[in-house]
Write a structure and sequence with these properties.
Length: 190
């Protein structure tokens, strides 16, 4: 119990130091505290991942061209960053990747941003529904160890798993309606 409150406190302090999005991070920490128990990352790494996401999002938000023309999502898990979304040019795609690579504690960047016009609200809503269905399908497989990101029907899976666990997760996700493709961004423990 004390461990969870320490993590919530650490995330709150980190968000205060970043100067923005405090309610979002604190709210996310409160909701995510139960998942911390089964998470294979250390408490410090969980805080670092939140910090990485906020720093990259903030830096991307300072680029007027990216803000005006692109839709970029940032996910960080164990120092590995996944960029998804759409940009109209390869140059903007590369710019987003470069921003992410220069943030402290980022170990690797998977730039999965597509060259396309930003997706419509309807497509994003569909992706949210797919993510919810995937998470529901993973309830029996200790889903707290898997981060699910859906973009344009493609489901990206992140986490620290054994290969056998990862195979079971992928098999389950492939059976979910609406999933067009599964991309593994796992780090393997074996």
């Amino acid at each position: 119990m004390i461990h969870r409150w320490l993590i919530i406190f650490a995330i709150s302090i980190t968000s205060l130091n970043l100067g923005g999005c405090v309610a979002l991070v604190v709210g996310g920490a409160a909701v995510g505290a139960a998942a911390v128990i089964n998470d294979r990352r250390t408490g410090g790494t969980i805080v670092d991942d939140q910090s990485i996401k906020l720093k990259i999002s903030s830096a991307l938000g300072k680029n007027e061209e990216l803000v005006a023309k692109a839709h970029v999502n940032v996910t960080s898990f164990n120092g590995v960053v996944l960029l998804t979304g759409e940009t109209p040019t390869e140059q903007l795609r590369e710019k987003a990747g470069e921003v992410a690579r220069h943030v402290e504690k980022v170990r690797r960047v998977h730039n999965e941003i597509e060259i396309a016009a930003p997706s419509a609200f309807v497509a994003r809503s569909s992706d949210s529904l797919i993510t919810s269905k995937v998470k529901a399908a993973l309830i029996g497989i200790d889903a707290s160890r898997v981060k699910v990101v859906t973009e344009n029907g493609t489901v990206y899976l992140m986490g620290l798993l054994k290969r056998e666990e990862a195979d079971a997760v992928v098999k389950q996700v492939q059976q979910v309606g609406g999933v067009q493709r599964v991309v593994k961004v796992f780090e393997y423990l074996d």
